[in-house]
Design a protein that fits this description.
With 144 residues, the protein is α+β, with helices and mostly antiparallel strands. Helices cover 31% and strands 38% of the residues. It is globular.
């Protein structure tokens, strides 16, 4: 009996669409990387988390620069996701409706830590795009 080669079987098999990523895992990983950039006052690291031309990214980077210019770092940032719903997902683009708030953040000046007020709950639509294998935020808009 002659068995077909693996190359032949692969060539005859229908193409398999790449699985969509778990949107909540992508969001949590992105939030953790953002928190690390803020904790280290690392403007280039923060900028790299956003797609080129992202207005949301420009605003976040500008805010980090202001805090850094005053000698303040922000540690312990954690996004508490209260609800998340996938609006659309592909292997290269995720659109999520997210209800969240910032918790646990502390301003650090010198060796002094000052807890920041708890953030209000926000509802946003977050668009993440895959650029060079990395998930970046392209847009964040208010979802009311």
């Amino acid at each position: 009996m002659i068995l077909p080669s693996l190359a032949l079987l692969t060539a005859l098999a229908p193409p398999v669409a790449p699985a969509s990523p778990d949107p909540l895992e992508v969001l949590h990983a992105w939030d953790a990387a953002r928190a690390a950039a803020w904790a280290h006052a690392d403007v280039p690291a923060l900028r790299s988390l956003y797609a080129a031309g992202s207005a949301s990214g420009a605003a976040d980077v500008a805010m980090l620069r202001e805090w850094r210019a005053r000698g303040v770092r922000v540690e312990g940032m954690s996004m508490q996701v209260l609800a998340a719903r996938e609006l659309s997902a592909t292997s290269r683009r995720l659109v999520l409706r997210v209800t969240d708030r910032l918790v646990g953040a502390q301003a650090v000046v010198g060796g002094r830590r000052v807890p920041l007020p708890r953030d209000e709950v926000s509802r946003r639509v977050v668009v993440l795009v895959r650029v060079a294998g990395e998930w970046r935020v392209g847009e964040v808009r208010d979802a009311g």
